[in-house]
Amino acid sequence: MINENTDCINTENTFIIDCKDIVLREFRLEDLDELYVLTLQPEITNYMPEWIGTREKYEDAMSNVFIIKNKEFFKAIPNVENHSITLGIILKKTNEFIGWCFACQNRDLPNCNTEIAYAISKYHRNKGYTTQATKELIKYLFKETTMDTLSALALKNNLSSNRVIQKCGFKFVESIDIGKCEFNWYKLCKKRECS
User: Fold this and answer.
1) DSSP string, 112-125
2) What is the pTM of this model?
3) What homologous superfamily is domain 7-189 in, according to CATH?
4) Is the pLDDT of residue 145 over 50?
5) What gap in Å lies between CA 194 and CA 147, rounded to an integer?
6) What is the b/e burial string over 153-168, where b = at least 16 CB atoms within 10 angstroms of the residue's CB?
């Protein structure tokens, strides 16, 4: 079961989840360049090829996808099952945009389960930031929405991602093929064992 004590702040119409070393913050147009630079890192795109794109693609996505979908998510609370949320991972001590964490429906999973996923800069790995971000987003979703089950996927060979998922309390369900890749599929339930 997840501890439901989450510090959420809404300052100047910007949603923030306060964590130990980082904050999760809704995307802003000012994040564009830092987001784009992260999508150039093969350490991210080798595991998330759908994030490969031009700066123009991200300029359009920032305005017309991420920001709009986040606003739709907040308006739909508590019934957000058909909505997505994407938050930047911001390092507190430098205010640097170092990654992102999101929850959205994954049509490749049975019943279109809501998946939680993340990416972090190669310069900020193995410091616990991704685990902090994921745990706090889970706490928020379980406390503020009607969601009671989340999924997570990790490529079988992505040992770091599998460890983050396990540290966050997800339980292994099975190996599944999506496209030409084999993933470990995990589930986390709010109050009971997942079936």
Assistant:
1) GPEEEEEEE-GGGT
2) 0.90
3) Gcn5-related N-acetyltransferase (GNAT) (3.40.630.30)
4) yes
5) 13
6) bbbeebeebbebbbeb
